[in-house]
Amino acid sequence: MVGPKGVARDRYSPGWFARGNAAGTDDEGNTMDLGIKGKWALVCAASKGLGKGCAAALAGEGVNLVVTARGAEALEATAAELRQLPGAGQVIAVAGDIATPAARAAALAACPQVDILVNNAGGPPPGDFRDWGRDDWLKAIDANMLAPIELIKATVDAMAERGFGRVVNITSGAVKAPIDVLGLSNGARSGLTGFLAGLARQPRLASRNVTINNLLPGVFETDRIRTTLQGMAAKTGKSVEQLKDERRATIPAKRYGTAQEFGQVCAFICSAQAAYLTGQNILLDGGAYPGTF
Fold this sequence. Notes:
Layout: E1 40-43, H1 49-60, E2 64-69, H2 72-83, E3 91-95, H3 101-110, E4 116-119, H4 134-162, E5 165-170, H5 183-199, H6 203-206, E6 210-217, H7 223-236, H8 240-249, H9 259-269, E7 281-284
Parallel strand pairs: 1-2, 1-4, 2-3, 4-5, 5-6, 6-7
Helix pairs in contact: 1-9, 4-5
């Protein structure tokens, strides 16, 4: 590709993705085709936050969507927004708790075929493990480990038969750097991560262009971080605003992430160009995690 004054530009170079444009338009109006237009995606917990960001980015690439969430009113409002995005395809809203068999069956039935699966669910509440009983643990595992596994089980073999599939699991940065008040999430999501590390490497999937990756969000401007900060405030006696400022100060980027930029990374992982990327845990945290690996 040729840029200003005849200077060659790498389509994968920094600056190719313009801020605020899910389709990746650069300063010259060129776009990067992710090769997924016309595919069907099932995006869970998509009425707000990171799930909505992923749905919007995929819609901007011409992907047809089935979006789910527990709240029907908020979900329908989001679906209406998604239909108005430039280049958007079909958008079907299916309300229900994706942790239940009935809601999973309804979502799968609404999707002609699942080429892209974005697993997402609201995290368990923060707290102290001394206060949690068996039912608390089972609820967390059902929503954040077993439900994603069931959806993957229902879709990946058909993906392999068609020769294309992308599974993106939204987990948490706490998988790499556990947060003490998020013990339920730490446990359930780490269990999912361990299972997927093996599944992604099955030749019957990987050799058929089916990839399985995890997106680990750090601190993003979502309802989830507000809930977490409220839990920390109750434990420490500090105000939510003070904790928010302290948390921001620990991030090298000195800001919280946005759902839009999270969604754009998700869309790339779902792209034709990302066919050699599988079995990975991709951390989006503004540089907060201090480790090398």
